[in-house]
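SAMPLE LOG
Freezer: B-3
Tube label: C17
Construct: single chain, 238 aa
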Amino acid sequence: MPIHEPLVMIPGLMADARLFLPQMVQLGSERAVHLALATRGETVEQMSEAILAGLPPHFALLGHGLGGDIALDIIRRVPDRVSRVVLMGTDPLSEPPQAAAAREVRIVAARAGRLAEAIREEIPLAAIADAPWRDDIMALIQDMALGLGEGVFIRQSRALQRRPNQQKTMRRIKLPALVISGDADTLVPMRRQEFTANLMPYGKITVIEAAGHLASLEQPQAVSDAIAAFLAGPMMLR
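STRUCTURE (predicted):
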């Protein structure tokens, strides 16, 4: 059996390993899977630095949302250590002032002991595709968030507010890159994710049908298959 490089998975805002559990089960049969939670630091750069300290010498990256922003910053820091990258539900541009102000309201709510309310506003029902399992996914979102706590929510929210515009980094990424977009994602619309894929020299996009912002849970088999095919694909010369 060929030796595959480890896959580093970085969940997004207030998500733990369960965000990628179906992918960990399927992909972990062929390669080591390393989960990295963004719980330390208050900026994307601080979080990527903290995560990078515990990573193997050479690896592939998978990031969702904030985790995708952190993955891009890791590539900026150590491009020669990353073999390829998968971005899901990731907005690589700076947060607009209006969105940052709305996020501030959710931070205030979390500080006041209303974390569950803040999460419902952060990931509303409309962000998940209408399906029989939508309520179960919404319950899991709450459970993951409440497990991580308001301190992590505030730090991650600050990181999203202050996130850098990573267009320069993406133009320089000379490695295979896959953007996975749910066709019903209302938080990071497909047009933005297409922009992300087109900005990277070797970027491509895969659209997951009947999925919203959390495609890894909404359509786990389709996402796992897309990632597995991408990881098994040919390497490109830098």
